[in-house]
Amino acid sequence: MSTTTTISRVGDYVGQTVMLQGWLYNKRSSGKIQFLQVRDGTGLIQCVAVKAEVGEDIFETCASLTQESSLRVTGTVRADDRAPNGYEITVQNVEAVQIAEEYPITLKEHGVDFLLDHRHLWIRVPRQRALLRVRAEVERAVMAFLDGDGFTRIDPPILTPSSCEDTTELFQTKYFDQEAFLTQSGQMYMEAVAMSLGKVYSAGPAFRAEKSKTRRHLIEFWMIEPEMAYYEHEDNLRVQEQLVSHVVNHVLNECEEELHTLGRDIDKLKKVPGTFPRMSYDEGIKWLQKHDFDIKWGDDFGAPHETALSAQFDQPLFIERYPTAIKAFYMQPDPNRPEVALCADMLAPEGYGEIVGGSQRIHDYNLMKERFEQHNLPQDTYAWYLDLRKFGSVPHSGFGLGLERTIAWITGIEHIREAIAFPRMLYRLYP
């Protein structure tokens, strides 16, 4: 009798007979021996079929298998120090579940467009499987940290009547006889629920109709958005710092094999957890001007500016207190210097740009009403948000962590498109 198990668990069955269910990644033959590289989603293992031991029929079944054919392999687990995962399977039986047609993604180089057209198949290769596993562990770590710190997860709507930022970057749709938008952020709804539950967060997709083709941008991306009642600017930065440190530590502990597959320099990641450096917007402007960047106070930072500033540090860098005029209407001004906001962007090292953006929110009714008027915000769609400042308003803060940018940085990949299973970009909606 055999035990059905996974490749990741074969070490528990050395000397025993097991059944693996998976797919053929690759194979080679030396005449009377077939070497099958089998994957099952948890790992990759070599299965050795010797013709004299398995018989003609089973040996022919092995020979008939094509790349990505699905199969069940029964055999004895054997420890082997030369094997990548330390084990091999001595084959007793092979059952072909389905013989795959000629597979379009072979073990050679392919162009990016070709691979993205075949993304539904590309995700099977070891590198892409490693990225998807790291993504899953990043999500697990984020939620474990927030859940363990007293946050409650809330799911805000994706269809909204208004935007929390620039409406020119919203996807518009019809909601029966009304105009509606795909959400850019669940922040406003999280603010409302924070007044009920204290500390809350959302984890879900966001959409931005920004016609950008850079390696940092996606049209559809995922955001983690905590909001916290009675938390001010310093409290907000502390939570962000602790969260990102926890996530990096978790990935280092749980994804060593995946990081190795990706060729990630883990020594760089080991320097991350701890207290992150800070720089004010003013200091950033002065540094950039000193280093011959054409920028003046009041300009926003672009990718080259962020890369140059963050390159000075091994850890993520907080840039805080940006000019109020270039930030969102809801950000609390510094009471000692109203021309700047109590906000911060967290810039990842190694040129990956902003991974977290957050601020203390305006809690004063009169100031928020004034901002509504300055920004010509329609009262009919934003009245509920203004209401939050009329009924028990308190100082509160929040932030948004971009999941794909964070994953791209942690894994060291060149382009954000590989940080999500099916990327949506400016000219790509398929598959």
From TrEMBL:
Gene3D superfamilies: Bira Bifunctional Protein, Domain 2 (3.30.930.10), Nucleic acid-binding proteins (2.40.50.140). It holds the Pfam family tRNA_anti-codon. Homodimer. Signal peptide: none annotated. GO terms for molecular function: asparagine-tRNA ligase activity. Residues 132-431 form the Aminoacyl-transfer RNA synthetases class-II family profile domain. It catalyses: tRNA(Asn) + L-asparagine + ATP = L-asparaginyl-tRNA(Asn) + AMP + diphosphate + H(+). Belongs to the class-II aminoacyl-tRNA synthetase family. It comes from the Bacteria. InterPro entries: Aa-tRNA-synt_II, aa-tRNA-synth_II, aa-tRNA-synth_II/BPL/LPL, Asn-tRNA-ligase, Asp/Asn-tRNA-synth_IIb, NA-bd_OB-fold, NA-bd_OB_tRNA. CDD domains: AsnRS_cyto_like_N, AsxRS_core. Its main location: cytoplasm. It is an enzyme of class 6 (ligase). Keywords: Aminoacyl-tRNA synthetase, ATP-binding, Cytoplasm, Ligase, Nucleotide-binding, Protein biosynthesis. This is Asparagine--tRNA ligase. It comes from Alicyclobacillus dauci. Its EC number is 6.1.1.22.
